[in-house]
Write a structure and sequence with these properties.
Length: about 140
Amino acid sequence: MNPTEVAAFVGAFLPPVIAVLQQSRWDAAKKNMVAFLVCLLAGLLTTYATGALKVGSWSDVSWLVVDLTTVWGAALFTYHNVWQKAQITQAIEAATNLPAPRVVYLPAPLAAGAQTIDEVRAAAHLAAPGAPTGAAE
């Protein structure tokens, strides 16, 4: 097999690998960037592994360009015509989703120097929206 055939074969089976890395909650721009970077890496490794790219040789850069575009094209084609229609990549994304990062807000008095857990609890209670302040209304 020549390097281009290997690149097409690798690209055809990249969408499930890409789906493992992607998260369902990401927007299209992030998903496309991850897909592009994985294809870029796969194309580079494919070209190097087939011996078409020799480190330090600029004469073989054309193989790199051909293999990168072949991996990218094969991945796009098989994603849209096979993996997505069979809903395989969507299932992989859903199964490998990581929980969304939580944002923890510290109560203001903690940053101002609360020393005990009781002070932290009191500050959290008072800082909670809608929490009673203890003042008569």
